[in-house]
Amino acid sequence: MPKAVGSGTFWTEMVKWQNGQSSQTTADAIEASWPE
Predict the structure, then answer these.
(1) pLDDT digit string (tens) for 1-36?
(2) Distance CA 17, CA 35 (A)
(3) Phi, psi of 24 (to 5 degrees)
(4) 12, 13, 15, 33: least surrounded by Cβ within 10 Å?
(5) CA 17, CA 9: separation in Å to the nearest integer?
(6) What is the count of structural domains for the chain?
(7) Residue 20 belongs to what domain range?
């Protein structure tokens, strides 16, 4: 996992998920943040 994803988007989205964001939205946001 790239650093920008692992220490950035992943943790940000996990906090949002814990606060009620849907699993699908969370997974989509993490997937979208991966570099091409």
Answers:
(1) 998 898 999 999 999 999 999 999 999 999 999 988
(2) 22
(3) -65, -45
(4) 15
(5) 12
(6) 1
(7) 3-32
